[in-house]
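Q: I'm writing up a methods section and want to include an example of the input and output format. Could you take the sequence below and give the corresponding predicted structure tokens, formatted cleanly so I can copy it straight into the document?
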Amino acid sequence: MNFLHLEIEFMGLEKMAAKSSKSWKPTGAAACSPMVKCSFPPIFRHDAEVLILGSMPGEESLRRHQYYAHPRNAFWPIMGALFGAGPNLPYHARVRRLQAARVAVWDVVGRCRRTGSLDADILPESVKPNNIPGLLRRAPRLRRVVFNGSGAETWFRRCFKERLAEPPLADIVFARLPSTSPAHAARSFEEKLALWRQALTPDVEAAAIPRRRIFSHTPETQTRQRSSRPS
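A: Here is the clean output for your methods example:
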């Protein structure tokens, strides 16, 4: 697997992550075209305890160079309810509040060719994943990863299925949550908020779940993954 951000390059990525409270625009060799999409540096600090993984930023997020920038995406309203990082605040203030709450944010896909804004529009052969194991190694307290929707989990399985039984992935608890995308209308905002609260509240959910690899549709319907291969 050729990671977009190789281990030797991760220190440079950490410098970008330290500045992730500002909008970020790729330049030079990292610049992307209308067809070739690039994700952002992570929102990340070394004391992070939970990582939220999306698949790849949508077109509005890419245009504004911010995570979850679509005005109807429920991500920032949910972060506001949980951590005071709501859309009423400037982007840099939201990012800092997430960092203070020890929440990291990144995407599974680092670079890809995509014809539209949906995960279904990603060309599989073009995908270069972000170096998620490298990030986990730099956050020793991080033991929980939640997927923002099924697309993120699907791409994670495809990109890392051969490494799930190896550290650091073998030590992580995974859960899939309802997508905050406006395209996912099967649940109300209140339902999504309740499930996200359950997964991101350490005293409630983390204490109740053994530290095993878990993939689930929601925290209330978790299923244990007994093999390193995807189902």
